[in-house]
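Researcher: Here's a chain I'd like modeled. Treat it as a single chain, no partners, no ligands.
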Amino acid sequence: MRFGYIQILRLLAAVSVVGFHAISSGRAHLVNDAIGPMGVLIHGYLGVDLFFVISGFIICHTSPPSGLAPLAFLRRRIWRIAPLYWLATLAFVAALNVAPGLSLQTGGNDAAALLRSLLFASFTEGTQPVVSLGWSLEFEMIFYVCVAGLALLRGDVWDRAIGLFGALVLAKNLGWTPDGWRWPLGAPSMLLEFTFGIVAARLFARRAPSVLSSGLVLAAIVAIVWNDPASRVLVAGLSSAAAVLLAASFGRDGKPLPILFAGLERLGDATYSIYLAQVFTIPLLARATAQTMPDCPVWAFMAIAIVGTVAAGWALYRCVERPLLHGGWGRRVGVQPP
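Model: Modeled as a single isolated chain. Structure tokens:
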């Protein structure tokens, strides 16, 4: 089943993140820092939270609750995100060395940092990856590894995942961890957003989580509220889960999307490429805009950056990502279209 409206949500999430990053880049290069009608995108970073929820929903919906082959699952998920990220990372390092004046944001580009980035393991040193937005992909990889590990056990892997993430977040927020323990990426509560996506998928399939798993997640939510009532995880995560469940419900009848929505759905296929392309397009477009239109307001540059990044991302998807996914190796590992 293809979730057309969820693909549109993915596109919206990517555009929001691009708009958010364009604000700081535009203000660094342009004199007129007004963001005017684009001001809503100052919260565009929350698009990452929507990505996490969608990831939990889609992977849960498309994978069986029992009999999930751990190695095959990991192979598919790694092939889905790693090759394009590796190419982007290597291209990014090359750009840092060839054109240092581009002011590309990076978590470091020495050999050790590069290796950690390629292994999705920058969090082990408490640092950002070479391509700074790769932190979100490291969260994805942690999610995949946890699910693969749970698949080694008998029973419902997704119910166990709900319970595990709920228990981890509860323990962290109650301080039930050994002295000196450093959580991956320092923010395990964000793993709960994958859980919200899994729960949404279970509700969509009319298969409720067990009482134990539900209780652990609810306890984790209460603990987060106790520590931080305005937590990003709860505000963005729960609202994203509601939006994803609603979008999935709209497409349950299987009817074709209206023409406008169908076009946005097609663009949604390129979301991952759009997400990665921005690390190149935003600084390049910022410098070009500053040189050719120095009085351009930041809000107009944000529109330029969004359009330019979506166009570049679509080209990257058609020329690189899609052949990687659906070429010989992609078919061999069983990668499914997003």
